[in-house]
Amino acid sequence: MKPAGPLLADKVALITGASSGIGAAAARCFAAEGAAVVLVARRAGLVEEVARGIREDGGRAVAVPGDVTRYADMEQAVATAVDEFGSLDCAFNNAGYASAGPLLHELSDEVFQQTVDVNLRGVWNCLRAQIPAMLSAGAGAIVNTSSVAGVRATAASAPYVAAKHAVLGLTRAAAAEYGAYGIRVNAIMPGSTDTEMMDGVLGADPAVRTRFGGKAIQQRLADPVEIARSAVWLCSDASSFTTGAVLAVDGGRTAR
After folding, report:
1. Which of 112, 155, 169, 235 has CA 20 to 30 A from 139's CA?
2. H helices of the chain, where?
3. Domain locations in the chain?
4. How confident is the model over 218-252, as pLDDT tens digits?
5. Distance (Å, rounded) from C-alpha 190 to C-alpha 240?
6. Using one digit for the tens of pLDDT, what is the confidence trace for 162-175?
7. Cα–Cα distance between 143 and 168 in angstroms, integer?
8. How far is it, in rounded angstroms, from Cα 194 to Cα 247?
9. Homologous superfamily of 12-255 in CATH?
């Protein structure tokens, strides 16, 4: 039997939040599966470092410094994909923001707005910029990053929980609107993952990290690569009959 080729051969993918964590892991995974990748993040030096590493390994990658809260930046990222590689076939809208905050009634307007802007408006801006390019091509696949917080509430994170719930609704609405045009839109719900952002939430206390990992049936935090591989599959033709779906990649956290 002839071995299967790369899942994303000849595809062009746009990945946000690509300077670290799940986004950086996804950049490498998408490229390893044959995609040309356009990498977007606010930290220009770090995202260029990821892109350079992919190119040094023989892949195709370009870095676009940008902020998902600014629609013009997302338009520029899509334009770069089309100009550099000829199309935009898939997107992983992964950029996120979380912080360990006070109780809801003590939250500042600034913290609420930043959390919602990055996690929800960021996905909205990405979709608005990406969909026209995919409509022109007659096909596309988009994966949005929600969280187990999209279906479960935790204390001291009300804006994050609200935004991640909303990402699931936005994903399903987009899937319903654009399915007839050949565009699939799905979401993943990562569980607690060993990333820089999680370090900022959990701090350096090993006991706290162990407690968070213990909430999963698998009794550990995820490696970012484990989350990234799920996004690769949802962006590939292997998931061609999957749209409007929410895939829990959480080590069983939401199964109990």
Report:
1. 169
2. 21-32, 44-56, 71-85, 109-116, 122-137, 158-178, 196-202, 206-213, 224-235
3. 12-255
4. 988 889 999 999 999 999 999 999 999 999 999 99
5. 21
6. 999 999 999 999 99
7. 11
8. 19
9. NAD(P)-binding Rossmann-like Domain (3.40.50.720)
Tokens, residue 87: 């199309």
Residue whose entry in the numeric block shows the structure tokens 């950086």? 24
Residues β-bridged to residue 41: 65
pTM to 2 decimal places: 0.94
Q: What are the CA-CA distances from residue 249 to residues 100, 217, 230, 245 (Å)?
A: 22, 12, 8, 13
In eight-state DSSP terms, residue 222 is B
What is the three-class DSSP state of 195? coil
| Burial class for 60, CB neighbours closer than 10 Å (0-12, 13-18, 19+) | middle
- CB-neighbour burial class of residue 106 (10 A; exposed 0-12, middle 13-18, buried 19+): exposed
Cβ(256)–Cβ(217) below 8 Å = yes
d(Cα 255, Cα 192) in Å, to the nearest integer? 14
Catalytic residue numbers, as ranges: 160
59: tokens are 């892949």
d(CA 100, CA 236): 35
pLDDT exceeds cutoff 50 at 23: yes
Region for residue 145 given its phi and psi (left: phi exceeds 0; alpha: psi -120 to 50; beta: otherwise)? beta
User: Token pair for residue 80?
Assistant: 């770069």
Backbone angles phi, psi at 75, to 5 degrees: -60, -40
Q: Buried b vs exposed e over 174-197: b needs ≥16 C-beta within 10 Å?
A: bbeebeeeebbbbbbbbbbbbbeb
Query: How many CA atoms lie less than 13 Å away from 209 in the CB half-sphere?
Result: 14
